Amino acid sequence: MGSMIVPMEPIHHVDGNGDPPPPSSEPDSTRPRRRRPKFPNMAAVPLVKKVTAEFLGTFILMFIQVSSIIMDEQHHGVVGLMGIAVSVGLAVMVLVFSIIHISGCHLNPAVSIAMGVFGHLPPAHLVPYIVAQVLGSTAASFAGKAIYHPVNPGITTIPSVGTVEAFAVEFIITFILLFVIIAVATDPHAVKKLIAVAVGATVVMNILIAG
């Protein structure tokens, strides 16, 4: 009937032999390209919220670290160095997943300074970040002292190496940590979804080699 609408069939081009042409090896420009996830944009987050996230994140990290060391000492080494390293590494990984979109999850003055040098932290935010991190770690230490009173000697600093050796070890593990963080944060081709795993694993390795 004249009023019926017949769906149009797709037109297939053929060559001189009646065969369809081979598929083109060129990419389809009409197909949307998958973009790599970028580092979270924190420009719209208020500074107060960023500083609060750094304070809470540093508090949680330091409290877990102090508590795991105390538990290892109180239970006669049942946790062990591996257990302490894994607990701290997992804490870092969870915190990165939780607050990286808010403050960047630095949790360390060295990280904040490095991010500022590479232009990923405004200069006006550097001092508030460091103050929040210092206050968070101090509060975590007092919380551990209050909860596990009297304080177990397992969390005291007892030098077992010389000053030069201690400085060298701290320099190396800090360089490794900052190298991983800066590489993932500044390289546009890095897999941003794995930054938490990369940083957490780096912390585990650093604790295993430096204690």
Describe the 3D structure.
There is one protein chain. This protein is mainly alpha-helical and 211 residues long. The protein is 58% helix and 0% strand. Helix 1 packs parallel to helix 4 (123-147), helix 2 (80-99) packs antiparallel against helix 6 and helix 3 (109-117) runs antiparallel to helix 4 (123-147). The model has no long low-confidence stretch (mean pLDDT 82).
Keywords:
mainly alpha; globular; Glycerol uptake facilitator protein; 211 residues
Condensed summary:
The chain is mainly α and 211 residues long. Helices cover 58% and strands 0% of the residues.
Outline the fold blueprint.
Layout: H1 47-74, H2 80-99, H3 109-117, H4 123-147, H5 163-186, H6 195-210
Helix pairs in contact: 1-2, 1-4, 2-6, 3-4, 3-5, 5-6
So what's the overall shape?
Answer: globular
- CATH topology heading: Glycerol uptake facilitator protein
Average residue-wise pLDDT? 82
The CATH superfamily name is: Glycerol uptake facilitator protein
N- to C-terminal distance: 86 Å
Number of strands: 0
The number of helical elements comes to 6
Determine the structural class based on helices, strands and strand pairing: mainly alpha
Under the CATH scheme, the architecture is Up-down Bundle
Count of individual domains: 1
What is the C-alpha radius of gyration, as a whole number of Å? 27 Å
Q: Give the C-level CATH assignment.
A: Mainly Alpha
Which band does the percent of strand residues land in?
under 5%
What is the N-to-C order of secondary-structure elements (H for helix, E for strand)? HHHHHH
Low-confidence stretches: none
